[in-house]
Design brief:
Belongs to the glycosyl hydrolase 10 (cellulase F) family. By secondary structure, this protein is an alpha/beta fold. The chain is built from twelve helices and 27 strands.
């Protein structure tokens, strides 16, 4: 039986699967016959598992088929598995399950998929499970070819004798069109807002037939790219950048090895010039980075320091950088890639990073301080940076008193697994911190056309997730190309990835709109968040105003008097 539901903005986040729905947004309503994505996620371990999402999805009217597999470790432990039948190619499969372990205090439980064509997807979701309570695992996968019978199995660390129990299993498929429709719904509700302009004369009488022109002059959502010193003095490159982006990050020029290659010889000349370009064009900038935990990206002289000498150098670095650029950068990546490397904590003790954050906050209290890491959202195969590991590290720093303000996800993708990416973002959203995709690109192992396809998938996924607050591309131009992916050639002519970015930037802006006020003296429209210039003309009278649209569920009412 089909039925109709009217959905508020809030209802989509925990909406059950519906047979037929109408998305009702001010000035935008459309029907949709399909499931609504559920952004629910949990990071706490619970005594009783929650009910399955989507009422179980494909298991809604039947208990899931399960079996037990002997662990690959051959130590007698077993792992539960779900048997999935008739899975389609290029369908987004979102799954969730509650797991409970026995045999260890805690362990990483990994979800893997085996299809009947001998294809194995080694990691499609993870959770750091604890003994004695239920932990929530959320993941997803896309098959390269159809599979009549597939096995989704859940296995603990193979070097321990660990048994895994499962409950509240859910698997929900989305076609590509259903996925896109859900993305567009979130864009319409999170990135846009309804506006009604009321036009009246000096006596307060409403004016029907007044001509209104609306032009977006800036965007609220930060979308930008890395730049390098190569932009200095390069007017064509500068113009190309300013026409597209409202945010920037310096690729290498603020890193310690760039600003102080020799001890005591600090030189900020290049970043000063880059900052001058950014500020002159009203572009916000992220500070990247204060410390990089990878030893090879620290100055050689720093690698030779230990104990008090290293501690003094670290304090000098923070004070020098943060006092020089106080209130100039909206963010600072205080610690870069600390889940993969531990240069400073190994030498200065386990509280070294906590000290970095406290000191940076004292030096620039208005800057948002980020942790920045790779392989958190790109994959779940990296045991160093599973989503729960990242969440645990951030909460550990918060408990220690650090002013942690943001989650940095580098986002260096190979072939993206979009349902997994979204599931990871859902879990990170439980931190209730701003999330930025900070270094987005696609591996150069793919040809340029494939890079563009995968880039569009990642950008749409980021822009349509309600917890993502900004996106930065890692596409600074150098004479020999870019890090992994370029948007243009050396003559600033678009490559396929550049065409993708330009098309999305155009899609995600309101542009210019024209209309007339109705018999109530009102004109309504639906627009992306940002700043607008409004011109109103009635007879021989004209006025110009500006309007700022910030995120809200409510319609923005704006009064203009002629």
């Amino acid at each position: 039986m089909q039925f109709m539901a009217f959905l508020s903005k809030k209802s989509i986040h925990k909406a059950p699967i519906l047979g037929f729905s109408v998305f009702l947004i001010p000035f935008l309503a459309f029907s949709y016959d399909g499931p609504l994505y559920d952004f629910t996620a949990y990071t706490e371990c619970k005594s009783v598992p929650e009910k399955p999402l989507y009422n179980g999805g494909i298991f809604k009217d039947q208990a899931p088929l399960t079996q037990h597999r002997i662990s690959a470790s051959s130590d007698g432990s077993y792992t539960p598995a779900l048997i999935l039948q008739n899975l389609d190619q290029n369908t987004m499969y979102c799954f969730s399950i509650w797991v409970k372990i026995r045999g260890a205090d805690s362990t990483l439980v990994t979800a893997s998929l085996m299809a009947n064509n001998n294809s194995t997807y080694d990691c499609v979701g993870t959770v750091l499970a604890k003994s004695g309570c239920w932990s929530f695992l959320k993941g997803g996968f896309i098959l390269d070819s159809p599979s009549s019978v597939s096995i989704l199995y859940f296995q603990g660390t193979t070097d321990k004798r660990i048994n895994v129990a499962i409950a509240s299993a859910s698997v929900q498929p989305f076609t590509e069109q259903q996925w896109r429709t859900n993305q567009q719904y979130i864009i319409n509700t999170e990135r846009k807002r309804a506006v009604t302009i009321h036009v009246s004369d000096s006596h307060g009488d409403r004016l029907q037939g007044a001509s209104i022109t609306i032009e977006q002059i800036s965007k609220d959502f930060p979308f930008g790219s890395a730049i390098a010193r190569t932009i200095l003095g390069n007017l064509p490159y500068q113009n190309w950048f300013v026409e597209r982006f409202n945010a920037a990050v310096f690729e290498n020029e603020l890193k310690w090895y760039a600003t102080e290659p020799e001890q005591g010889k600090v030189n900020y000349t290049i970043p000063d010039q880059m900052l001058e370009f950014v500020l002159a064009n009203q572009i916000v900038a992220r500070g990247h980075n204060i410390f990089w935990e990878d030893p090879k990206y620290n100055p050689a002289w720093v690698r030779d320091l230990t104990g008090p000498a290293l501690k003094a150098a670290v304090s000098s670095r923070i004070q020098s950088l943060m006092s020089k650029y106080k209130e100039e950068f909206i963010h600072w990546d205080v610690s870069n890639e600390m889940l993969h490397f531990d240069f400073y904590e190994e030498r200065l003790g386990p509280d070294a990073t906590l000290h970095f954050y406290k000191t940076a906050h004292e030096a620039d209290p208005l800057a948002s301080l980020f942790l920045n890491e790779f392989n958190v959202v790109e994959t779940c195969s990296d045991v160093n940076t599973t989503v729960d590991t990242y969440i645990d590290k951030i909460r550990e720093l918060e408990r220690g008193g650090s002013s942690m303000n943001g989650v940095g996800l580098e986002s260096h993708f190979s072939k993206p697994n979009l349902p997994l990416m979204r599931a990871i973002l859902d879990k990170l959203a439980t931190l209730k911190l701003p999330i930025w995709l900070t270094e987005v690109d696609i591996s150069n192992k793919f040809d340029k056309e494939t890079q563009a396809i995968y880039l569009e998938q990642v950008l749409r996924e980021g822009f349509s997730h309600p917890a993502v607050d900004g996106i930065m591309l890692w596409t600074a131009i150098h004479p020999n190309g870019c890090y992994q992916m370029c948007l243009t050639d050396s003559n600033l002519q678009n490559l396929p990835a550049g065409d993708t970015v330009d098309r999305l930037l155009k899609e995600w802006e309101t542009g210019e709109a024209n209309g007339l006020t109705d018999d109530h003296g009102s004109y309504s429209f639906f627009a992306f968040l940002g700043e607008y210039r409004i011109r109103v003309q009635y007879g021989n009278r004209t006025t110009n105003s500006t309007l700022s649209l910030s995120q809200s569920d409510e319609t923005k009412h704006f009064n203009i008097q002629l």
